[in-house]
Amino acid sequence: MTKIIVTISDNSYRQSAQHICSLLDLPLVEIESNRRELSEMADFSINLSKDGLSFLSNTQNHGAIRCDFVSGSHRHRRNYGGGNGQMIAKAVGVSSKFLPNVLDLTAGLGSDAFVLASLGCRVKLLERNPIVYLLLKDGLERAHLAGEDDDSLAAIIDRMELTHINSSNYLDSLGTSSFPDVIYLDPMFPPRKKSAQVKKEMQALHRIVGEDEDAAITLQKALDKAVYRLVVKRPANSDYLGMIEPSYSLQGKSTRYDIFAKQKLPK
Fold first, then answer.
1. In this structure, what DSSP letter does residue 221 have?
2. Residue 233 has pLDDT above 80, yes or no
3. How many CB atoms lie within 10 A of CB 151?
4. Is the pLDDT assigned to residue 7 strictly greater than 90?
5. Tens digits of per-residue pLDDT, 88-100?
6. Which partner from 4, 44, 72, 98 sits 20 to 30 angstroms from 92, CA to CA?
7. What values do phi and psi take at 127, rounded to 5?
8. Average pLDDT for the chain
9. What's the CA gap between 78 and 71, in Å, rounded?
10. Amino acid 36: pLDDT
């Protein structure tokens, strides 16, 4: 059984940490413990520090998993990502004449939603795993604060709305008047054997998230709820999700987007 604890770097984060402990029913441990002691207590730690909320392995030597929309790869892609020429933009149908409202059923750490929001789409993000939800919520809150000095970032974050809910239940609750223009589904990819640093980090997250075993059922429900199209992100050489053939696909080196077209996009 995977064991997880909550840790803090100093007492100033105690109240926030206790709130997380209450939400997740996890114990709080002072960070003064060394790595070996932590590894004996639990497999993973959720840590609060000046850098925000992080998910760390106590047994594997790799970096912290943190949601950061302000710097690093997200900032670079926002500035130099290729705009509407990006494959995800083409898959969703983004253009200068159409900025769809997108429902992201499997938000994860929000990377794809951030790209779509940076292109002008309004994105509703759903995440059911409580730890991933808290990491994403923390990243959005820190980006919102950073947006006080960055109007462009502020506009992007304002277009992202996060909800902690099971996607299948959310779809069941949608009335016709609330159907999104586009639904985006990115179920957890099967674990890979390659051991690059970033993949080790994501493998750690995979252990707490598990497989999206109901992804095919969610796909079936989503097909009836999207106005214009449903987009499913898959590994490049994988089978169609649920063995349901899409209208067409956009193929990349490592990723494929399967598009289920409902009607023509508005011009």
1. H
2. yes
3. 9
4. yes
5. 999 999 999 999 9
6. 72
7. -145, 125
8. 89
9. 10
10. 75
* DSSP labels, 118-158: HTT-EEEEEE--HHHHHHHHHHHHHHHHHGGG-HHHHHHHH
Report which secondary-structure segment, H or E, holds 170: helix 167-173
State how far the Cα of 248 lies from the Cα of 257, in Å rounded to an integer.
9
Digit-coded pLDDT (tens) for 103-125:
999 999 999 999 999 999 999 99
**CA angle, 66 then 152 then 70, to 5°:** 15
Query: 3-class DSSP state for residue 13?
Result: helix
Radius of gyration of the chain (CA): 19
CB 58 within 8 A of CB 35: yes
3-state secondary structure at position 41: helix
CB burial class (10 A; 0-12, 13-18, 19+) of residue 177? exposed
Please, is 181 exposed, middle or buried when counting C-beta atoms within 10 Å of its C-beta (0-12, 13-18, 19+)? buried
Residue 160, pLDDT score: 98
Cα end-to-end span (Å), the chain: 53
Contact 88, 257 (CB under 8 A): yes
Give the pLDDT confidence of 14-33 residue by residue, as tens digits. 999 999 999 999 999 876 65
Distances (CA, A) of 171 to 51, 59, 187, 217, 257: 35, 38, 16, 11, 21
List of long-range contacts for 146-153, beta carbons under 8 Å, 24+ apart:
146/70, 152/78, 153/69, 153/70, 153/78
In the numeric block, the tokens 């690093």 are attached to 72
For the record, the structure tokens of 153 come out as 């970032």
